[in-house]
Sequence to fold (462 residues):
Amino acid sequence: MPEAAIPLPRVVIAGLGGDMGKTLVSSGLTRALTRRGLRVAPFKKGPDYIDAAWLGAAAGREGRNLDTFMMPAGAIHSSLCAAAQCADVAVIEGNRGLFDGLDSAGSHSTAELAKLVGAPVILVVDAAKVTRTLAAIVLGCQALDPGLDLRGVILNRVGTARQEKVIRAAIGEATGLPVLGSIPRVPDFDLPSRHLGLVTVAEHPRAQAMLDRAGELIERYLDIDAVLALAAEAPPLPARGQDRSPEVPERGRVRVGVPRDAAFSFYYPENLEALQQAGAELVPFSPISDPELPGVDALIIGGGFPEVYAAELSANLPMREDLARRIAQGLPVWAECGGLMYLARALVVGAVAHPMVGAVPIEVEQTSRPQGHGYVAARVDGENPFLPRGAELRGHEFHYSKIRVGSGAVRTVLALDRGVGVGDGRDGILVGGVVAGYTHIHALGAPEWAPALVRAARGGGW
Fold:
């Protein structure tokens, strides 16, 4: 019998580089479609937490990531198939430039992802101070990869009606592609940013109003019906057998604490879902405001901006002391980036050393320049509570902090073939039941991680 197919209209919003307007178009399109009553599955290409969260806020559901370096092709396919069960259309925001990847061949680029998932591509271009040259650039994109389904162009930061008319005609004559939208310069609309990119949606006091404005701009200046028609031309996804996680009785669940506040917000939805599927009840708490750690059997501490809230984290002495006591008693903890910084003895920001939990015998210094930025390839070469020796991990790091004191005296369990980590080709500091490092992993690319954390929470030895 022929293999069944799963329909999922989908489109990739790509750009020529950063700051071209991809997030404006993607989040605005997502909000506009949602306001039309469509169920939108929002995705961000690459490992970025912040843009995915903005897309999720625009859709009123979790924004998810698709990354061909961190996730195998089958996991990407499964993620899209899962979305198809409860969505009318998927909007996939690209990252960097359309063909930008790890090497000159553009491996792991937005273009490669678009071809993998069979999605038509719409290219956002910056029209500031340019006309026919944009046609040459778009034509170059067509010629560089004829196998890419490049189907339309959106102009951003258009200055005048005459400029728009010239660009539309030039692109149409040179490439045959339609211009699907023309967004003017909007001087009073700018999503705020900081050193890792946009300010997180959880921190922005007017996030929903900003997204409503983006939706209004897209509704006014983009041919949304044409975009939907293109998305509908994406071929159905072939249905494949999906692994089903066994049901875990509620009485058999362990409690896994998850810091969720302004300082800690970087969690892939799939990581939290994988823990639940493995038998965890997730227990949110705030290291900034809660007086003590809730009753939990293990912790995951994700990334975020502890450096921005260092004074508040340090001031909550009861929480710091309670967490240090529980860790000393053997509490299993998986900590990534911001979690590493919080567990250190001190976090130095602007020459001020803020005392932290002190469970990891290091000091961390926040700097003005990136210390690690990009993909990470690691091998587990030391015994630990969570990952088997010999396991290969793919993840990413993006941090402006570095180990200032103590890194040479600590034990680590990850050898890096790519990336910076805590330094000297290492990451994953091991202290008791704690593994803390700069590497962020994705559960769809490390399926053994969540079950192992739950086993550690149950008191399983290692």
